[in-house]
Amino acid sequence: MPQIPSFSRSHTCAMWRALGTEPSLTSQILEQLLETLSREIPYKESKSFLLGSGSERVATPLPLAATCALDELMSVPEAAAAVLERFPTLFQSLLLRLGCSVGVQLPKFLQGREKRSQLGSAPRSLQPCSCAVETLKAMLERAGNDDVVRDVGNAGGWELMGIPERHHDGIALLAGAMARLCGPRLPPIVRSLIPVLGSVFECQRVTSTAFLAELLNHNVVNDLILLEPLLDALTALEKDSCLLVRILALRGLGNVTSGCPEKIRRHGSQLLASMVNGMDDKDDPNNLVALEAMSSLSKLLDHLEERDVQSMLLHIAIRIRPFFDSEQPDLRRSSIVLFGNLSRFGRADSEVFLEQVLNGLVTLLLHLQDPCPDVVKACKFALRMCGPGLGCEGLREMFGNHLREERGLHYGEFINDVCKFLMRSHPALLSRLISTNLFYFKSPWRELRAAAPMFIGFLVLHVDEEQGQQVDLDQLISALKLLLKDPVPAVRIKVAETLGRLVRLL
Q1: pLDDT for 58-112, tens place per residue?
Q2: 106: β partners
Q3: Which range is least confidently modeled, 51-60, 265-274, 409-418?
Q4: In angstroms, how far is CA 353 from the centroid of its own chain?
């Protein structure tokens, strides 16, 4: 049975190192230690009696001891041959051991020893995660992959692996380094990690998904004929019980745009179905899966053609519309960018998609005043993309010229000109445009509450007498009078200006 090395048991450390110098024994011992890691439960749930805290995970002694023993065994140069021989198995086992060690506490009987270590009386930390990280690094170095260790270290990846909220980011950095620096070693590792995606341990599923998802960012998976197995494995995770696993799986599928863009059309239906399912995820209270699906889908659309997307176009456009007004800026930005990308495919079937563009037009124009600069950029992009489908050359030119990303915008003049062209090209829309703007009188953003009455005022300015009959003046005046009580002076000013413009309809 392996013992946990410590300063007080320096003879134990020396014993493991000595065993590493005996090639005839090293291979057998590695096998036994790896078997211990795979057979034993990595941690146990222990109820904490501290007020307000639930259970905590406590490392089980045998896997912790085996991890420490592996570190000592692989610290001697003579162990290199045995490490190289078992590299795929060692890498998979230590990666999963690391995944199971994040946020895990030491057993109580070892906590005193760890305190002495922190005071400088012991040579190593016994913290499960730190120990797992150091052992994985030692294995890579002994196998001749010092460059991988340095690459991950320079990016701060080893530290990220120990932070529960960022663990998957650290694992992605490791996967990227492996793909760039030792790609030929990946096939057996990938084959051994795919079955782990069904592990009963959520932490192992997160770690393995993060690693495999990042590999799709690199063309090496295509060179090594790993693309199809990875796509199938990640697609199967859309119903995983862990939210983060579902997010990482979608991220991996979206990574194909970087790693194998030439293969996207071949797998287009599979990729699109996964993204749509992600947007329809029913167990996603904060819409994080939907956010990942929208971001990945925007990247995929650049590599697809109209016939690939047509059957899902309307469903996607309707599904993302509520996110335009999300309180989360990332959701607003991603959904609006995706809408702009979708418009490229809607021009041939203009009747269907034009209705979606018209439904979202007021929202996109108002969010040009969004307090988040990235959302403003997204709206500029979406309106530029939608412009050609509006059937009005004046609007197309305005959106193309005035909404360039680097160009500033005088919003009042711009909306005035937009309303002029809208009333010339789509006069029947007046009631719908006004109704949509009325909805934004209750917007949580003061900028939009000021923009909406201004928008209505400019619409009224450009209607003729016949068009003016569409306007329900009583409803409009009542809504404006209510908004006149807004606590923000800038909002009240825009309301007063619009009330003055209504005179021409009386």
Answers
A1: 999 999 999 999 998 998 998 899 999 999 999 999 999 999 999 999 887 776 6
A2: none
A3: 51-60
A4: 28
The whole-angstrom separation of Cα 275 and Cα 339 is 14
Task: Taking residues 196-205, report their average pLDDT.
Answer: 96
Rounded distance, CA 149 to CA 141, Å? 7
Paired tokens of 447: 């900028």
Reported as type and span, the H/E element at residue 262 is none
- Residue 360 CA to residue 316 CA, distance in Å, equals 13
How far apart are the C-alpha atoms of 120 and 138, rounded to whole Å? 22
- Among left, alpha and beta (phi > 0; psi -120 to 50; other), residue 125 is beta
DSSP, res 186: H
Q: What is the dihedral of CA 499, 501, 502, 506, to 10 degrees?
A: 130
Alpha-carbon dihedral of residues 282, 287, 292, 298, nearest 10 degrees? 100
* Distance, CA of 315 to CA of 318 (rounded, Å): 5
Instruction: Return d(Cα 274, Cα 271) in angstroms, integer.
Output: 5
Residues in the chain: 506
pLDDT digit string, tens, across residues 380-415: 999 999 999 888 999 999 999 999 988 889 999 999
CA distance 68 to 50: 30
Which pTM value belongs to this model? 0.90
| Average pLDDT of the segment spanning 209-216 | 98
> Alpha-carbon dihedral of residues 291, 296, 301, 307, nearest 10 degrees?
-80
Residue 51 pLDDT grade (very low, low, confident, very high; cuts 50, 70, 90) = very low
**71/17 Cα distance (integer angstroms):** 9
